[in-house]
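Objective 1b of the project was to move from sequence-level analysis to a structural picture of ligand recognition. The entry below was assembled by the postdoctoral researcher (A.K.) and checked by the PI before modelling. It contains the amino acid sequence of the target and the SMILES of the bound compound, zinc ion.
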Amino acid sequence: MTSIPAFRYHPDPIATGSAVADGGACELCGEVTGARYAGPILGRQAERLCLGCIADGTAAERLGRPDGSAEFSDGLRRQSDSLPSAVLEEILRRTPGYFSWQESYWLTHCGDGAAYLGRTGWDQIKDDDEALKALRDEAQELGMDTAAAQEWISRLSPDGDMTAYLFECLHCGVHLAYSDAN
Ligand SMILES: [Zn+2]
Ligand SMILES: [Zn+2]
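Corresponding predicted holo structure:
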């Protein structure tokens, strides 16, 4: 049986692809948990790392380099203004990250980090007004007009070269998203 710890900010890492089924033993703790981490490690690499070792901070500590703990998300340090430091530490060091092409973000709402739900695309969110609004706002900030934004959003897909990452606020439930391209 696969045992997946509860991650506040990444509730289903198997569904998002940040963990995969694996029958081997974790390199750090030796446990056979049925799954291994499959996301980015900013630190020393481990071929087979269980999610329990991420959840309890063992992986951050033991895969760290002399200059600091290992982290599992890139680029988030720039977001430190929008996240309480305890939340930032939990997301960076005790939460499975996810691969992205450009620097990743962890979207925030109601003063907290949001829950990462995975990659998404037009077919999945065409009726999701909240996610669409977030993507339209992002496109506008990038200088796209309404038609260009719609064209861009309609080409997003979960497994293509243009994708979006979907989040949900843990407090008010609003859907949030941002896009990425290879
Ligand atoms: Zn382990
Ligand atoms: Zn909220």
